[in-house]
Design brief:
- It contains seven helices and 14 strands.
- The chain is of the alpha+beta class.
- Among the domains are: 113 residues, Probable tRNA modification gtpase trme, domain 1 (Gyrase A, domain 2, 2-Layer Sandwich), CATH 3.30.1360.120; 62 residues, no CATH class.
- Helix 1 packs across helix 6.
């Protein structure tokens, strides 16, 4: 995925007002199958999976024993004993190796299908109507975070009603055995662009993807969440279901919820020009000198806020910078 195809701001606005097409093939994708697939996912995820309906999906995380976040992900239930999972690109090898290390004692297989399934996302208020013109499947029946297997412009795909922009839309994995994958992906990409042209669809790069997710309050692994940040600290505690049986990180998360987290992610929108880089920590000690000198960063303490340091920041299409602090 390039930083942009034309420029970040017009791509951001096109997605908000019409539709954007994202090449997210770099994301990791896997099938989790076997008689004990559900019991296995109940153990490696803090989210209850046994009640997930067929064709439904959910957001979740992998946790360390200490409750920190190894990665965030989406998982969708294809059938009684099969799930489709999407993880972050940078963590693909680490995640699937970690999952295989923890599948001992479970009758389950973790199959990495990333290299044979090109993946696109179509996002925006006109996304569904554009895709509907390319399939006979009634997309209005696909619920939020739902999964459907269908033909799209003649190609077999997994389509999930999900995304990373705060808009409606779908993420599409093109199925196949890897043969002619590039040619088939190019054909599907062009089919979507051509069908969406009257509605103003444009290809969108990484820069606008970041401003869109920041504007929607969505976290990014490596910035806003990490092994040192728990779901409760990141304010995504809704993924943790403490009442279910044992899962990795349960003891630590149970203790943290009882004592309450000592830090929390908060959203930032600057009123004036500035860059909230890593600079001061809670003790007002130099944290990480900002580019341009010691005084280039921002101390995020105030009379009403204990402070912390910025973890994500990006200028938005209105010129004001938005981000998160922990």
């Amino acid at each position: 995925m390039p930083l942009w195809y034309t420029a970040a701001v017009p791509e951001h606005l096109a997605t908000r007002n019409g539709a954007g097409l994202f090449d997210v093939t770099h994301m990791g994708r896997a099938l989790i199958t076997g008689p004990e697939a559900t019991r296995y996912l109940e153990y490696v995820l803090p989210t209850r999976m046994s009640k997930l309906a067929m064709g439904a999906g959910t957001y979740s995380v992998f946790c360390t024993d200490q409750g920190g976040i190894d990665d965030d992900l989406f998982v969708f239930r294809r059938s009684e004993n099969e799930y489709y999972m999407v993880v972050n690109a940078s963590n693909r090898a680490k995640d699937f190796a970690w999952m295989r290390r923890h599948n001992k004692g479970f009758d389950v297989q973790v199959n990495d299908i990333s290299d044979t399934t090109p993946m696109f996302a179509v996002q925006g208020p006109k996304a569904i109507s554009i895709l509907q013109q390319l399939t006979s499947t009634n997309l209005s029946l696909v619920s939020r975070f739902g999964l459907v297997e269908m033909k799209l412009a003649g190609h077999d795909v997994f389509a999930t009603r999900s995304g990373y922009t705060g808009e409606d839309g779908m993420e599409i994995a093109q199925l196949g055995d890897g043969r002619d994958a590039a040619a088939r992906a190019a054909n599907l990409w062009e089919s979507i662009l051509q069908k969406g042209k009257p509605d103003g669809i444009v290809p969108v790069g990484l820069a606008a993807r970041d401003t869109l997710r920041l504007e929607a309050g969505m976290v990014l692994y490596g910035n806003d969440i990490s092994e040192k940040i728990t779901p409760y600290q990141a304010r995504i505690g809704f993924v943790v279901h403490l009442k279910k049986d044992a899962f990795i990180g349960k003891e630590a998360l149970t203790a943290e919820k009882a004592s309450k987290p000592q830090r929390l992610r908060v959203g930032l929108v600057l009123m004036d020009k500035g860059i909230p880089r890593l600079h001061k920590n809670r003790d007002n000690k130099d944290h990480a000198p900002a580019r341009g000198g010691k005084d280039a960063g921002m101390d995020l303490r105030s009379e009403t806020c204990a402070g912390g340091h910025s973890v994500s920041a990006h200028p938005g299409p209105d010129g004001f910078l938005a981000g998160f602090s922990l």
